[in-house]
Amino acid sequence: MKVVNVNSVNHQHHLDSLQATLLEDPITPRASSDVPSSGHDPTAGDTHGGGGCCSGIVLPTAKPVQNQIQALLERHENPQKAVSTTVASAVGTSFSGVSKLLRNLYLCGGSAASVPTMQQLGVTLVINATTEQELPNTPLPCDETTGYMRVPVKDNREADLDRYFNEVADRIEQESVRTGGITLVHCVAGVSRSASLCLAYLIKYHRMSLKDAYNHVKARRPQIRPNVAFVKHLMEFEFKQHGTRSVSMVYCHALDQELPDIYEPEFRTMEMLYQKFRRNIARR
C-alpha cells in the first residue's frame, strides 16, 4: 500500500497557490509574502552618504511615474534564472534551489525544502520563517532526527522579526557546535525573512558587519532582498552586537522614500528610469 505524506501534499498545494499569486517587491512598503521562488539558486559561498546617486537630485515625485518605474523594475528583477545560473557556474553548483552560505548553513524557498534535498545535504535542523496561513509545517525526513523550528512572522514592515534574531542565531550555532549539524532556513522564496535570519547569524557568530554579511549572502544567492523594515532591524542588531553601523538609510527621490545604501545598484536603476520618464513627460 502506498503511503502518502499528507503534510508534503498540503505543503506543495500551498506553494502552488502562493507562487501563482505572490509578487515580490521588497522595496515598496506593502505587506506581502516573500517572492515566489524562481526555481534555481546558486550554491557555494558601498556605504555612501547623502552624496549618492539618489541625493542631490531634487525631482518632483509623481505617483503614475513611480508606478511605471515599479512595473519596469519588477520585469527586470524576475529573470533570476540566467543570472543565478551564471553565478552558480562561477561559484559552485546549484542544488535543487538551495543556496549554500556556509558549511553548516543553507538558504532556500519553500518549494526547495523537500525531504530528498534535506537527506542529500545532511540537514539536521530546519527553520521555517512563515506563518501557518502561508505554509504548513515543512515535511521532514521520517528518521525523527531532524530538528524543526517555526518563526511565525509575515513579510511586512510591521513584523517583529528582530525578536527572533538571537534565538535563531543561537539555535543554528548550537546545532553546528554540538553535533556538527547543518541548518536549512527557508521562507516562501528565500528572499526576505529567511535571508534576514541568516544575516543575523553571520553578524552574531561570524562577527561580520551587516554590509559584509549582506554581500556574502548576495554573492551566493543574488535574489535576496530583505524588506526595508528588516534591514533596519538588522542595523540595530549589528549596533548591539558590534557597537558600529556599516549600513545607513539614504533618501531616494525616485521612490520618495528611504532605502538602505546596500541597495545602491537598484537606486541607480530607479533614478535612471525616473529621469527617463521625466524627460518623456517634458516632451509631451
The whole-number mean of residue pLDDT values reads 75
Distance between the termini: 70 Å
Report the biggest beta sheet as strand number plus sense, adding barrel if it closes: 5 strands, mixed
Helix/strand class: alpha/beta
Report the sheet-strand fraction. Answer: 5-15%
Number of strands: 7
- Count, helices: 9
Helix content: 40-55%
| Dominant shape | globular
Low-confidence spans: 1-9, 13-94
Q: Can you list the strand order of the major beta sheet?
A: 1-2-5-3-4
List keywords for this structure.
single chain; 284 residues; alpha/beta; 5-stranded mixed sheet; two-stranded antiparallel ribbon; 9 helices; 7 strands; 44% helix; 11% strand; disordered N terminus; hydrolase; Dual-sp_phosphatase_cat-dom
Note down, in words, how this protein is organized.
The protein has 284 residues and is of the alpha/beta class. The chain has nine helices and seven strands, in the order αααββαββαβαααββα. The protein has a five-stranded mixed beta sheet with strand order 1-2-5-3-4, with helices on both faces. A two-stranded antiparallel sheet has the order 6-7. Helix 2 crosses helix 9 (264-283), helix 5 (165-179) packs across helix 6 (193-205) and helix 6 (193-205) crosses helix 7.
Summarize the structure.
Residues 97-243 form the Tyrosine-protein phosphatase domain. With 284 residues, the chain is of the alpha/beta class.
What is this structure's SSE topology?
Blueprint: H1 6-21, H2 63-77, H3 80-91, E1 99-102, E2 105-108, H4 115-121, E3 123-128, E4 147-150, H5 165-179, E5 182-186, H6 193-205, H7 210-220, H8 228-242, E6 249-252, E7 257-260, H9 264-283
Parallel strand pairs: 2-5, 3-4, 3-5
Antiparallel strand pairs: 1-2, 6-7
